[in-house]
Amino acid sequence: MARVNNWQLGREMSYWYPESRPQKQFAAVFDTNKCIACQTCTLACKTTWTSGKGQEYMLWNNVETKPYGSYPLAWDLNLLSLLDGQNWGEEGGKPVYKGSTIFESAPAGERVLGWRPEDEDYAYPNVGEDDCAGGVEHGASIEIPHAMAWFYYLARICNHCTYPGCLASCPRGSIYKRPEDGIVLVDQNRCRGYQECVRGCPYKKVFFNPMTSTSEKCIACYPKIEQGLSPQCFANCIGKIRVAGFINTPDKAEADNPIDYLVHIKKVALPLFPQFGLEPNVYYIPPIHVPTAFTRQMFGPGTDKAVEIYRNAPNDQDLTSLLGLFGSTEAIMRKWKRVGDKAIGMDENGKELVNVPFEEPVHIRPAYDKLYQITRTNCP
Amino acid sequence: MRFVTSLTILALLFATSCTKIQVPTPEVNVAQVKEITLDPNAAVWDAVSLHASKMILQDLVEPRLLEPSTSEVMVKAITNGSEIAFRLEWLDASQSDMPGPRHFIDGCAVQLPSKVDSNVPAPQMGEVGKTVEISYWRADWQAIVEGRADNINAIYPNASIDHYPAEAKPLENNTQAQAETAARYSPARALGNRRSGPRDQPVEDLIAEGPSTLSPAPSAVSKGKGVKTAKGWAVVISRPMPAGFSAATPSQIAFAVWEGSHIEVGARKMRTGWVPLILK
Ligand code: SF4
Ligand code: SF4
Fold first, then answer.
1. pLDDT at residue number A30
2. What is the pLDDT of residues B155-180, one digit of tens each?
3. A303-311 and A292-299 are packed helices; what angle lies between their axes, rounded to 10 degrees?
4. Which of A202, A319, B230, B232 would bridge with B91, disulfide CB 3.0–4.6 Å?
5. Kind and range of the H or E element at B237?
6. Average pLDDT over residues B222-242
7. Which of A329, A315, A298, A327 is nearest to A359 (CA)?
8. Which CB contacts under 8 angstroms, 24+ apart, belong to B197-201?
9. Side-chain half-sphere of B254: how many Cα atoms within 13 Å?
10. CB-CB under 8 Å, B65 with A171
11. pLDDT confidence tier of residue B138, bands split at 50, 70 and 90
12. How far apart, in whole angstroms, are the C-alpha atoms of residue B27 and residue B49?
């Protein structure tokens, strides 16, 4: 095993291969506060990539209701219970992971710590939908806020990890990370269907195809990325919760890069289960109505601060404007800026792709319209 | 049943399909016959000498197999001069021939050095510059060759599928458009990955130069047939005679067995070291 730097852990860790970062790393930010679980993303992916024989049960994109939803069943709980002592400490004022990752806790004879879902585990993709934590007392539904009656939606795709567990698990080297954009792919010609990657991906985002006997996974719609366009699940998102782009390491963060700004500068978007050690590249703005005792174990020690920053967004014009650019164009915004009350998304040469006013004008009409002599109901 | 079983019991078991109890030989002796058969139950095997190959864990490269399963594989070999056939029989209480998540497939393989040479390659799938040839039989391919449908209902009989784009109405009378659409959703088949079926032989030809280098052989030359016995599997794998192998120049052979229900796949397998292969 090699020693590599994982900035999400604040320390070095052991990995199967030496550190080799791509020229650019595909990354995304999902705002969990805006997702409505319409599953349009799931269907956009399904119809584009997984409508073939042997792909019936596969959802490269899925949306699950937390706390009880999970696809495949208990993907998160199973791994969390295998992984001991996930404690965070602090060094020089920065959080440092003191527990061990899936690579550092690989049992004898294994390449990583993992487990294998059975076919039944894929049979309930929407288990726990809209089930809230805690019981709801009679009459509580009209009290706001509810102390424990919360749930939220977690949209998930492959994280195109910097240190993929799938890639480390494959004894044949059939999985590779593209040097040009960091997208992680299974070579469909070389794969022999050993399902080691299915076992080794803690997010369970590789799926075995029983008709081709190979394993398949999210490809980040790379043919679209190559044309500067966002993947299907981004472009079709009804809630406009997603933004796609490329991330730099924290030491090279650029304030005009939307992903860098949200992840490194504002620190409002956080990785999913950073303690697994994969440096996943889909970042989440945590739900602000959920007790952070729950979300902290999912998104790491930055959760409380991220919630505070997001809650303060109405007083932060830059953050508000960038949040307004989510889902505003299919093109990938490599840069952004705020000019007055407008947010502008740009390509890598600074050419404008889209411009969005972040404060929409409000018109208030009198209830009685004198011109037409009619009374109207004012709806937003 | 999965664990160590005494040689005597195996030999007795074997006797149920043969007429007399055979004393195993330390090498694989290849008997010369007029005609090669792929049938594990053919009478020709009765008169052929038996080798009982002790299996060991593949515990050298990760992922390793840590808990032993198949302890022995019983081997017989025949040749008609141009083809050589091996009959492998081993114990396996369950039949694992349905692919799926966490479902693994029973199988076996024979491995020969690409060149007959006293300086043999490493028995763990060869080494750089010293290639090995592997013929690999799998129970799911056997089922498909025998007519199991190449669709999801063969694996999950209660599955209901509302729509496959390749079978949509507008493509109904256009077989080329159907095939193109199906290929779009089946990248492994579109790329010609021989591993991904549909197959006309239950045996696959492979070459390797050490662990993790397994690749398809230049051509598919092996044939075979496996049958489930009361206690396990009996499989015949036939392939062309290894170049340079003769009565005067013996070679070596190695075997591997995968027990699907024991989560054996790829590197997680029981294997043997090299065994002398002698033409009688
Ligand atoms: S999320 Fe899983 S499948 Fe995707 S790159 Fe990471 S380890 Fe591989
Ligand atoms: S399309 Fe967008 S809003 Fe709808 S479920 Fe997917 S991520 Fe959530």
1. 98
2. 999 999 988 999 999 999 999 999 99
3. 110
4. B232
5. strand B232-240
6. 97
7. A315
8. B197/A211, B197/A212, B197/A213, B197/B141, B197/B144, B197/B150, B198/B144, B198/B150, B199/B141, B199/B144, B199/B145, B200/B145, B201/B141, B201/B145
9. 24
10. no
11. very high
12. 10
Q: What residues are paired with B223 via a beta bridge?
A: B238
What is the DSSP track for B44-110? GGGGS--EEEEPEE--SSSSPP-S----EEEEEEEE-SSEEEEEEEEE-SS-----BTTB---EEEE
Q: Do B185 and A53 touch (CB under 8 A)?
A: yes
pLDDT bucket at B4, cuts 50 / 70 / 90: very low
How far apart CA A211 and CA A58 sit, in angstroms, is: 13
pLDDT band at B199 (very low <50, low <70, confident <90, very high): confident
Q: Residue B237: what pLDDT? A: 98
Give the other-Cβ count within 10 Å of A12's Cβ. Answer: 12
Q: Is A217 in the pocket of ligand 1 (CB under 6 A)?
A: yes
For testing contact with chain B, the best of A1, A45, A213 (most B CBs within 10 A): A213
> Beta-carbon neighbour count of residue B248 at 10 Å?
6
Go through the domains of chain B in sequence order and give each one's CATH number.
20-150+200-279 (2.60.40.1190), 160-196 (no CATH)
What are all long-range contacts of B171-175, with beta carbons under 8 Å and residues at least 24 apart?
Answer: none
Length of chain B: 280
Half-sphere exposure of A202 (CA within 13 A, CB side): 29
Q: Decide if A264 contacts A256 (C-beta within 8 A).
A: no
Is there a contact between B205 and B220 (Cβ–Cβ < 8 Å)? yes
Show the domains of chain A with their CATH numbers.
2-133+147-254+271-311 (3.30.70.20), 317-380 (no CATH)
- Cα–Cα dist A5/A216, whole Å: 28
What is the model's pLDDT at position A300?
97
Band (pLDDT 50/70/90 cuts) for residue B8 is: very low
User: What is the reported pLDDT for A146?
Assistant: 60
Selection from A29, A33, A40 nearest residue A238 by Cα: A40
pTM of the model: 0.93
Nearest CB among B100, B166, B189 relative to A210 is that of B100
pLDDT less than 50: residues of chain A: none
Please answer yes or no on whether A116 and B59 come within 8 Å at the CB atom: no
